[in-house]
Amino acid sequence: MNLALFDLDNTLLAGDSDVEWPRFLIGKGLLDAEYYHRENDRFYQQYRDGTLDIDAFLDFQLKPLADRDRDELDALHAEYLDVHIKPIITRLGRERVAAHQAQGDLVVIVTATNRFITEPIARELGVEHLIATELEQGADGRFTGRPSGTPSFKDGKITRLDEWLAARGSRLDAFDSSWFYSDSRNDIPLMSRVSHPVAVDPDEFLRAHAEAHDWPVISLRD
């Protein structure tokens, strides 16, 4: 069995689910528009620049989850998935996932975005296995607004993947071939660990890095 890893945002999606979630909540009148638009744009630019403080971002991004009970959040997510996410799932992304599955590869989405947002998206894509930033929950089942464990970001993606594979009794070098598809400079650490890194509609920094290291550069946009 071979291993196929996929980033989610701006790779399988023609957009960013972490950006779309607060936009959705703003549209519902549930967040202060001026503040969240400004901070959302600021953190996203930091992410694009490779300077994101993941702890500060998670404090910002997870607070709306802590303010609502799980039933309300799940109902909101169902609408968010239909309105904001399904339209930006790329046809070619679906086809690339399906091609790896048809070959019998172990397919995993590895994303810095939290599990609450991404788990239903992974299901929509037909991907069983998801490595995402985990969320702390209280005894009542509500989210606390804090992450749990290592965020799945930059080198943290390597840590979380190694932990996930170890729990399955495996390791990355046990696979004959491994792929990681990503758009972002932030994923260069994990891309450098697989046998087949693939830059997908990459940012300028990743494109230059990929070209310098003879990594394939592809587009999954229609």
UniProtKB/TrEMBL annotation:
Any Pfam family the entry gives: HAD
Domain of life: Bacteria
Lineage of the organism: Bacteria, Pseudomonadati, Pseudomonadota, Betaproteobacteria, Neisseriales
Reactions it catalyzes: L-histidinol phosphate + H2O = L-histidinol + phosphate
Keyword check for Hydrolase: yes
Enzyme class, broadest EC rank: hydrolase
Similarity comment: family membership: Belongs to the HAD-like hydrolase superfamily. SerB family.
Keywords, comma-separated and alphabetical: Hydrolase, Magnesium, Metal-binding
UniProt-listed PANTHER family: PHOSPHATASE RV3661-RELATED (PTHR43344:SF13), PHOSPHOSERINE PHOSPHATASE (PTHR43344)
The protein, known as: Histidinol-phosphatase
